[in-house]
Amino acid sequence: LQRHLVTGESTMLNRVFEITALHRSGYEFPIELAIVPIKKTGDDFYCAFIRDITERKREGERLRESYEEIRRLASHLQDVREEERLIISREIHDQLGQQLTIMKMDINWLKKRTMLAVNDATKEKMDELNLMMDDMIKTVRKIATDLRPSLLDDLGLGAALEWHLSEFEKRAGIDVHYEGLPQELPLSVTIKTGLFRIVQESLTNVARYAKAKKVLVTLKHIDDILSLTIRDDGVGFDPAELATKKSFGIVGMRERSAMMSGKYSILSSPGQGTTVKVIVPLLIESELK
Hints:
The protein is α+β, with helices and mostly antiparallel strands and 289 residues long. The protein has helices at residues 2-7, 54-113, 120-147, 150-154, 157-172, 189-210, 239-243, 248-259, 285-288, and strands at 16-22, 28-40, 43-52, 175-179, 214-222, 225-232, 263-268, 274-281. The strands form two sheets. A five-stranded mixed beta sheet has the order 4-5-6-8-7. A three-stranded antiparallel beta sheet has the order 1-2-3, covered by helices on one side. Helix 2 (54-113) runs antiparallel to helix 3 (120-147) and helix 5 packs parallel to helix 6 (189-210).
């Protein structure tokens, strides 16, 4: 106030700020304070507005704790879902896949044993049945891999990404370039799964909306930071429009990043493509295992 009286300037006037006040009984409590200068008949007056915000602070803390509980629950549900996917994937691959392979072998056995005794129509039907079995085996393997690729658990994130990007390139007809790590890192299941699912979701968005011709995926490790970038040369979009839409895919990727104590960002503009970036600290690796 003295500074305002002397210079006419002050950083504390005409704005609201929070400070800690001392109650007459001796305990401290938070308040909201606003001081407004008033001129009247040539004299300077100051009007102070004080509000006790103790309850608001408590509600804010309860809301923060509730949000953290929801995030922990979401993280647990993600882990449970991934574990279920792994179990189902292995059961489909090991049990159903093996049974179909045995059936195919039996069909070929029957075909050889009855080659001379059956007519052309029967031979044709057996060939069709053989082709159907081939298609069924491929479908079963694809379902099992889509649920959770075994490469992710057996060989690591880099190998799983290389496989997935190759499959995406074949299906979508989009040129994909991958720049990975020189060697696999001993990543936690949470980080491996989280980054892999973010790449999956990002590429799904590229195929659906981007109209891109090229995609660049990079995975870098610098100073205990793992950085994932997915960049396309598609049509892009206005981020302001995205803020008004309920994009659960992007919300899911942002939450996955938060579960890894990471940061998720998406940059785009019309005609300039889209860049998704995820930064994950590796110092918390022991906490995520």
